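Archive transcription. Copying these from loose printouts into the bound notebook so they stop getting lost. Printout 1 of 2:
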Amino acid sequence: MKAVFKLSNLLFVSCFTFLLVLLLLFRGSQQPLSAAEVEAYLGKIEQQSQVPGGRHDLKALRHFLENDDGLPFYTVNLYKFNEQAQYLDGRENPGTGRQAYDRFSAVMVKLLAQQFSQPIFGSDWMADNGNDWHRLVIVGYRSRRDIAEIFASDAFADAASHKWASIEKNERLLVQGLHIPALKFIPATLLLLLTFAFICLKLRAAKKPGASF
């Protein structure tokens, strides 16, 4: 019986530690970017030599980063794709605009995962909404630091050629969600449930004669 209790304690500690680390990772630092960090990120982005690269509006990006509040936010993205991908190098058989964007998206999803940010929702079902947009994508970021990390990476600058070859036009809104639950609430909820279940099991076991922890 003692061996069973020791094993249950070990499992609880292991699961508790894992969920706590996961919660902290999804939560992020929640510290606004410092002026030095803003300059460092912008410096990296300005030095990128990839063509077309991220094609950032550096003035708008500076304003966005300098006004960081450290809080999570969402980007709501609308895309209209080129019928045929328009690469600057004039490559043969570039594929459709959608195919080019999917190549960019495959890289972007990995970069998001590295920052513990995530796609929230995506849909191609836009034809019956009285507009000419082809795709809607909502992405959740832990902070502006995370999107700065992505923009400053060579992987993003390299993959951006697929993005700009794919789209005829796009719109992006930056919002802070009021009703969309962040993924950090999943490990937080599991953490509470695990703790509650462990306490219940301990109390139940304590009522048995000869129980030992």
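Printout 2 of 2:
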Amino acid sequence: MADPTNASAPATSDEKTEVLPETAVQLVEMERLKTELAGAEERAKNHWEQYLRALADVDNVRKRGAKDLESARQFAVEKFAQDLIGVKDSLELGIQNSAKGDVAALVEGQSATLRLLAKAFEKAQIEEINPEGQAFNPELHEAMMTQPSDAPPDTVLTVIQRGYQLNGRLLRPARVVVSAAK
């Protein structure tokens, strides 16, 4: 047995270590804090993973949107182009038949081609601007010249070249002759 007077002697296995009450409270508190820390670290890890997934989802949506936009740009005129193919075919047929010298058939062919083109414009929402007899509008018309006339000043007398709008946006102004005051 160990000598109780010798405090520096090593403790034997039969002796029990005595824990002071304040040390026990600190150990319990430390264990509780370690458990809370582990839980908080796990929640932080889960939140970080959720953040990374959300970030990847946003990036995927952005990329998909950019791809869809590029696709829309490339194929926006596809239907209009398909309608114009019929117009081109009609023009080629007219050129082939022009050698036959049948003027009536050639005029009828050109009229049919013009109807095809008008239908293609209508489908594409391209509107013709034909302002003859209307007041001159500098936003839609381009005055090529003025001419003295009995008509009120700034009235479109003659349309040299028709204008066109696409969904209200000017593609080409109508080129016109405008009346001038006498």
